[in-house]
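Cont'd.
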Amino acid sequence: MSRKSFICGNWKMNATHLDAIQMVQKLSYRLELSDYERVDVVVAPPFTSLRSVQTVIEADHLAIQLAAQNVHWEDSGAFTGEVAPAMLAKLGVDSVIVGHSERRELFGETDENVNRKVKAVLAAGMTPIMCLGETLNEREAEETESKVAGQLSAGLKGLSPEEAVQVIIAYEPIWAIGTGRTAEPDDAGAVCEFLRRRFGDEFGGSFAEDVRIIYGGSVNPGNIAALMAKTHIDGGLVGGASLDPDTFASIVRYWI
Ligand code: 13P
């Protein structure tokens, strides 16, 4: 099975719902139907914009997919400030970013919680986009592989191969996020290849062939083609460069 490219704009904590409506409309004007056949085009606005963006997608029959940036693992209850998986699924959310390094580093998200969230997202019929990656210190200490292997296996713990293969693995080296410093395509490709091999060790080679592994960290229109040329990189998770619809559209159309 060939792996369809997956390119997601993670808007992080940017844009009001009014901005978001304009951004997604502008993005749609810049894409052609054939682009969506080649790439799963995804935007991940903040919670407050999900409903607005979903309404635009539905009204204009857009093939843009909708992602959320976080979720809680419980179905409902006394969890002030949290959002349940079913609430997102009902809104037409297709996928949910889980375990982003900003959540791990700034909000104390642990591997155990990432694993709970991955399971909850799958149970609600959505696709988890599970992030992992090493710090600069870890890279310099040559601990990249042990770090990402640990995060991969902890995040996917207890899943069947059929479940695990639905997860999109996002390799995001922390030192490359928001710094303008992209991993060299060879280095990023090597880590993604390593992750695919580890995935195969745990879930079997044929599932490893099918699982999508994407790269994030200072992706821009100038480096996306070289990243996508790597066999084991199936897409991108784009932060800053996804906020401008023109720029994001040229990342989505990376082959042009
Ligand atoms: P930047 O593209 O701004 O480096 O952010 C990457 C990221 O964290 C996407 O989730």
